[in-house]
User: Which sequence fits this backbone?
């Protein structure tokens, strides 16, 4: 047993190792960005470096000790340490280079997921909301079941031919594996998309799908584990319905906690002047967002899912109430946390490939898993796209479908789900296979993204603003707060979208946004007469002066009205609404000009991507509609 | 034994409790700032809230369990848990509301200390460097020894009259206590100073003293603990010299690690164009600064001290190489981390007052400690001021001395040092007494700062730039890189400062700064002929075009040439140098104008304090000299 001081020194050394690994990765990323190398992405790189360090650690730290520990002793070890500690490492020294698996779920994932929600490009996201929800919910379930079925086929075959006598892998284990590897990762592909300015709707579809399916996969895994713990090997309908209930309950509960936190935060910033002190404001924003994670975990829901919805709503409501400085501060803070956490996780994956001692490689299962992955992705994308295309005015073309098929990478969430439980042989096999799947998909699919885009002739270098310049089709709210339809009748386009979203959109614009932010129309005009005192109390003074068009979501469109590859540049810029809000626009534009000047001064074409993207997308408002499109030349 | 899941829920609940506590503190801070309440500072508030939560926790969670645990069983508990876990809490549920004491030293203190170093106002700091070093080194040693002597007097008296027979508190314990409570805390007083814009030299003296004496106290405690572990109760000269050696070794080692890290970081940013990607740049900056902490801990030095020097040097060199965006990003990041960590520590202090079960209150010792504190501060400030005044051209007046005497608050560092070891009764008594000292000094001295400033008739509302506008007395380096003396001969003023600092200043300006940053003069002019190839290689292209005056430290003065309360507004603005660097100034000023415009737009007079202070102080350069002084009216 090492003394506390020795322990502390070892901990520091290990952490230093990972910091050095991160620094190495960052420098290589920089060199690659500098030289415009695209065959491998930063996450792929982080894995490679992790693998190298893992090999070095394994073969430099007393290999004889590693041999004395037997894989079969795992269960005993786990049961001795009553709380099932997760990773077992091959010798005491390697055991040091490990972190509590809960670390991934409780410290590293939340900022990644929150950032995903917070940096969501609402415009494109909501335009494709129907398709995204279908892919995320139905798609993930289909994917998990197909993977489970195929893997179960392979496992049964192995048992039948008695390949591995000690092998005991039931259908529920297969289902668990299916759920774990159904969480697709947006990081790598989307980084390439961003760099190449790929078609915004493809980007929105993939981003939306991968963000939401993380939530679905996480809760699915939780539900399956609840079912597993019910214990019987036969199908147990009581346990099934209880885990189904848990799935729905946890989802709704997490959603409610995330939503409530965001609403409270929005109201705090609306009714106080915390913005006078950006440090306090940013702290409150950070602490509130974190507290929704902790609250969800404390009451037994899923913090990650709560934090995701919290992030989406914080971006939709709270962001508008922040001071200009805090808008930048919060974006930059979460961007940094996301970057560090992500690279740490991918480095750690590489390291754990060699330092985790209880890997359980089963070649047949691994082959089966890769086949299952491929088939399940096909069963997810193509049939659902076909069904969605029946309802979409602008269809999802085949090249986009192929790209979505190709972009099914697995990453941090799958890893974090797999590493949580590695006590039993089946769990170890799941962990090992998941790790391999992450490596292969990140390297092969991530590295091949650029090539695949060229090959599928997908439009790149699209001006994201040009494709969204359809703001003129929104119901127009004038300064008196009375709704009036714009000159060009929007009826035809509205017919495309589901009534539910139309309802939600109106509810959001006329009630939620005015209640939660400073934007108009004033509630005194939209709420029933009986609620007048309440409406007066809730309406911000700015709402009377402001126009709907000035809001960041003026182009929050409900229908799938932008086709893939079609140029949607505006024919009729809404001159009238622009004039109506002249005064307010002047301020906004000054801000933009200043930002632009800064950007040019820095000569950093890429550097502003992460930080100012979300920022400017929230500032542009209706101004977008006059940006000329330059996308046509690349169209195929 | 709770299951992993229960444990996780409890952990989440506890963390949620602290997050809620922080939020509560922040809101109260905001209300207090809003209402301009100054009788209690935010740190004092955090303690009060912590105390309330502590009481609630203590009396709501199974009080009967608390009574069954006996204080005398402590040693047994400690020895059972072989690594001496620090805090013992009065019942299993309260035990949950605890954190590993190492958390304070390894997670919460580093950002606070780094921020202190990074936000150091170099101009005023270096002008008073001699006095600051004297107060920090000699003063802390004097303080520790005086406290130890007085406390030992009280302890001996108690033993003589047999007040507490079980009592066993040797001189070394007293010395340990003296070292722990000699670490003064800058937070509370300086926050008040900043708000009131108090005399900059008083501010610099107190800030410099409290930052550096943390380092001295931390290493002193480490050395005394080494001596203690040698074990004999008699004076052991071998152990004494080994701990003296350790004191010097650890100080120099930590200094070297911090310095090396900062130099490497500066060179990285000088010779790469990482600034094109601010996220990468900020990450590297953060990781490098953190790695110096980890490296120092891994090799057995003191991470906190390393991080302090690293922070000072990062601000002095690396900061100038950062891109404009990263300058703001890094400032804001560490400002936020500092704010959160600080308030967390002070909240936690309040909570631990009631939840820590092994408090050892000894009224006589506590009274003795407060007397010792008062006497030791007097023995530190007045004699040292007297000695320093013999050498200073502009003396430290008595009202400033009284204010320094009054401003001896104890805070986070003293707490972190005391909580590290709480196994034995003596350590518990030290912990309890330190906690009380922190509370009383933060509330009474912190709360009385404004009153005391008025009472002592110390100048407030001083324009910090006006008092430092003495840039014209520096040796002037023209564009050819040849040194030339300015028109007004500086000889008389230089005579005031020690040769060592003159040497250091020249060495820094002509060699270190040109090597580590982009500023001039070119090394090709200053280095010996034989090193010409190396000099060419190290000199940045900007150095040939740049002028010394353009650097952020143009007013880096070595002598204590600014008197307290005297108006130092410039009589002769150096027109010539201003014209010489016109082109470069244009860019800088544009940046400033943009910043100013942003600031005005936000209407946030206080919000910019923390974030833009360091920024503008680094941008102003020689431009300072034309700022008119407005300080005279308030002078008494």
Assistant:
């Amino acid at each position: 047993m090492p003394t506390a001081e020795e322990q502390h020194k070892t901990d520091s050394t290990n952490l230093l190792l990972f910091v050095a690994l991160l620094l190495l990765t960052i420098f290589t990323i920089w060199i690659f960005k500098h030289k415009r190398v695209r065959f491998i992405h930063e996450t792929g790189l982080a894995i490679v470096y992790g693998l190298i360090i893992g090999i070095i650690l394994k073969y430099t730290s007393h290999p004889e000790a590693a041999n004395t520990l037997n894989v079969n002793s795992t269960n005993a070890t786990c049961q001795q340490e009553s709380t099932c500690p997760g990773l077992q490492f091959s010798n005491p020294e390697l055991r040091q280079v490990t972190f509590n698996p809960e670390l991934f779920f409780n410290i590293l994932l939340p900022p990644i997921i929150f950032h995903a929600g917070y940096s969501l490009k609402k415009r494109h996201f909501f335009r494709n909301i129907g398709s995204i929800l279908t892919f995320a919910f139905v798609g993930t379930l289909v994917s998990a079941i197909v993977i489970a079925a195929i893997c179960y086929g392979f496992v049964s075959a192995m048992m039948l031919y008695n390949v591995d006598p000690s092998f005991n892998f039931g259908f529920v284990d297969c289902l668990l594996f299916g759920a774990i590897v159904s969480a697709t990762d947006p990081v790598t592909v989307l980084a390439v998309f961003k760099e190449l300015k790929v078609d915004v709707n493809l980007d929105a579809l993939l981003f939306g799908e991968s963000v939401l399916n993380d939530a679905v996969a996480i809760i699915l895994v939780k539900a399956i584990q609840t079912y597993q713990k019910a214990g019987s090997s036969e199908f147990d309908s009581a346990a099934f319905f209880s885990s189904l209930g848990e799935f729905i309950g946890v989802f709704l509960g997490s959603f409610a906690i995330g939503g409530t936190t965001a609403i409270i935060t929005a109201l705090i910033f609306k009714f106080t002047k915390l913005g006078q002190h950006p440090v306090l404001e940013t702290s409150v924003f950070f602490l509130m967002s974190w507290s929704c994670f902790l609250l969800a975990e404390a009451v037994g829901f899923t913090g990650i899912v709560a934090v995701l919805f919290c992030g989406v709503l914080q971006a939709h409501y709270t962001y508008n109430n922040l001071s200009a400085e805090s808008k930048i501060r919060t974006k930059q803070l979460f961007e940094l946390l996301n970057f560090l956490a992500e690279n740490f996780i991918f480095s750690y994956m590489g390291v754990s490939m060699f330092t985790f001692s209880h890997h359980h490689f089963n070649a047949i299962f691994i082959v089966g898993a890769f086949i299952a992955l491929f088939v399940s992705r096909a069963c997810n994308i193509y049939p659902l796209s076909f069904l969605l295309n029946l309802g979409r005015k602008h269809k999802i073309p085949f090249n986009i479908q192929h790209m979505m098929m190709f972009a099914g990478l697995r990453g941090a969430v799958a890893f974090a789900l797999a590493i949580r439980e590695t006590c039993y042989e089946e769990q170890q096999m799941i962990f090992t296979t998941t790790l391999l799947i992450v490596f292969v998909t990140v390297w092969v699919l991530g590295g091949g993204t650029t090539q695949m885009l060229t090959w599928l002739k997908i439009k790149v270098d699209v001006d994201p603003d040009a494709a969204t310049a359809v703001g003129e089709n929104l119901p127009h709210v004038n300064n008196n707060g009375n709704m009036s339809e714009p000159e060009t009748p929007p009826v035809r386009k509205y017919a495309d979208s589901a009534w539910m979203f139309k309802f939600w959109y109106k509810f959001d614009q006329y009630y939620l946004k005015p209640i939660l932010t400073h934007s108009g129309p004033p509630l005194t005009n939209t709420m029933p007469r009986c609620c007048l005192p309440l409406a007066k109390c809730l309406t911000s003074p700015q709402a009377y002066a402001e126009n709907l068009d000035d809001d960041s979501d003026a182009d929050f469109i409900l229908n799938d009205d932008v086709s893939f590859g079609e140029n949607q540049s505006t024919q009729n810029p809404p001159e009238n609404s622009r004039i109506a809000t002249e005064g307010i626009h002047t301020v906004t534009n000054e801000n933009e000009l200043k930002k632009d000047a800064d950007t040019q001064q820095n000569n950093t074409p890429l550097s502003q991507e992460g930080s100012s993207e979300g920022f400017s997308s929230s500032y542009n408002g209706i101004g977008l509609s006059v940006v000329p499109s330059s996308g046509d030349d690349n169209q195929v």
About this structure: Residues 237-271 of chain A form the longest helix (35 residues).
